[in-house]
Amino acid sequence: MNKEEWIEAALPNYILTNPALLAEISGLSEKDQLDQILWAFEDEAEALNIEPWELALDFSDKSEDEVKALRLAVHQEAAKTLEMDWEEYCALNAVEV
Fold first, then answer.
1. Overall pTM surpassing 0.70 (yes/no)
2. Most buried residue among 3, 14, 76, 81 by CB atoms closer than 10 A?
3. Is the dihedral of CA 84, 79, 92, 90 positive or negative?
4. What is each CA distance from 87 to 37, 49, 76, 78, in whole angstroms?
5. What is the reported pLDDT for 12?
6. What InterPro entries does the annotation carry (predicted)?
7. In the chain, where the domains are located
8. SS3 83
9. Reduced to 3 states, what is the DSSP secondary structure of residue 1?
């Protein structure tokens, strides 16, 4: 799965934790409901100062060890793409190894 698929898979679990939003959007079309849920999800990630894909992992059915490994893999990929030293990347992005 890629990051976008993680987010998509997390949304059904996320909305269960937000019954007020579910009630608020109940009269909207299915597409508009999905948009509202996604925007709320992204807003929550921003409020937590994390990326939406990171929040998505919290709503997955994966074990804590699997989530940690996936987070590290994505951060390692980002460090490689940015051509940054791994230790420097971790320090700048508060990544705990």
1. yes
2. 14
3. negative
4. 36, 21, 10, 13
5. 95
6. DUF6388 (IPR045662)
7. 1-60, 62-97
8. coil
9. coil
